[in-house]
Amino acid sequence: MQPGKSGTTAHILLVDDDTSLLKLLGMRLESRGFRVTTAESGREALTHIEETSPDLVLSDLRMDEMDGLALFHELQRRMPGMPVIILTAHGSIPDAVSATRQGVFSFLTKPVDRDELFEAIDEALKQTPTTRGEGGEAWRSQIITRSPQMERILEQAYMVAASDVSVLLTGPSGSGKELLANAMHQASPRADKPFVAINCGALPEQLLESELFGHARGAFTGAVSQHEGLFLAADGGTLFLDEIGDMPLPLQVKLLRVLQERQVRPLGSTKSFPIDVRIISATHRDLDRAMHEGDFREDLYYRLNVVNLKLPPLRDRAEDIPLLAKHMVAQVSARHKPFVKGFSPEALNLLASSGWPGNVRQLVNVVEQCVALTSTPMIPEALVSQALAAEENALPSFSEARAGFERGYLIKVLKITEGNVTQAARIAGRNRTDFYKLLARHDLDPGSFKPSAMPEQAG
């Protein structure tokens, strides 16, 4: 048996429009212990890819509609790093050189030598990223998914976890960035050391600085004792900086210095301490835009964003919603109502078809509400509908409320000044540059508030 993910039989997707050769090769691979899925065209192969994640693709080069190289390029777009071996009866040195330069793992000529084929497959599987590792799935046990998109992200996360490079996790709020950061820590050589997390947008500047870097006794009013700070607390392990995009600029400078010098000096102290910390940061903001607007330092951005992993919103992984809902209801009911067994089919359909602007975090809230209010073992559709409506009317987060206020305020002063940015900035107590940044952040065009641009009132 050939090992693949999690030490199980490797799964090979075999693609050829010659059905007799497809059957023959499939039998040969299965006799070697591989699990084989076959496809008679590139399009059919892509359908299989959406349903499962093979360890390797073995494809003929010459096929109608989509040839082997076109299939390879589409696979690279959808599943970066997926090893592909191409077979052809029309093998030539130029074809082989071109294919391997583009990233094809191996290029074999038909009729394929049995030993040469198995040797190429074995070599490709050695280099295939696994999302499992020697300890099985323990590192990713908190991430519930059957989504091919999430599986690809987990494969990349597992590869990156082995090194000490800084990782920036992006994606909407509530999509599970801290869970992924913790999973990467568990998959890393630092797993037996601390994983320390902090939300950089939840604390005022001085308190955030003290939490990160520590302070000496008497460093400021209220500092009645020494505090080591999270960099020192995470020494040897991983420090997760959530919502890094909300960190004030003065602190960004200090953070950059700590990362460059690999040592930290607590507030009010004259002594610096060496640190050995792996940094994973996360944000829901567009840091490229923030950087160009001067709200985020370019040098810090490039130091944190060595590898970028982007988590999808929950609506883009709808196949995970029933799975997540069942898992969550089992956890919540075990604590509060053991008689609750799950959701009715109609309730699950409603969950799966909802938009989930709050992503996984919102799903957790809905499940908790449903378990709290149900009086039956199977949660009905009506209760899910009620919980979703309650979520829509719930108080927004502080960041959402602040953004809403800012936008409303900017619209008001632009209406008052009829789109005159100089006057509007003066009313707001901001300089013109800062005011333009605020307008850009909220996608507001002052020109649309000028009298000529305003719709005429009906008389």
UniProtKB/TrEMBL annotation:
Pfam families attached to this UniProt entry: AAA_lid_14, Response_reg, Sigma54_activat
Lineage: superkingdom: Bacteria
Domain Response regulatory: 11-125
Lineage: Bacteria, Pseudomonadati, Pseudomonadota, Gammaproteobacteria, Oceanospirillales
Keywords in alphabetical order: ATP-binding, DNA-binding, Nucleotide-binding, Phosphoprotein, Transcription, Transcription regulation, Two-component regulatory system
GO molecular function, one term: DNA binding
SMART domains attached to this UniProt entry: AAA, REC
Record flagged with keyword Secreted: no
Chain ranges of the Sigma-54 factor interaction domain: 143-372
GO aspect biological process, one term: phosphorelay signal transduction system
The encoding gene: glrR
Protein's recorded name: Two-component system response regulator GlrR
Gene3D superfamilies: 1.10.8.60, 3.40.50.2300, Homeodomain-like, P-loop containing nucleotide triphosphate hydrolases
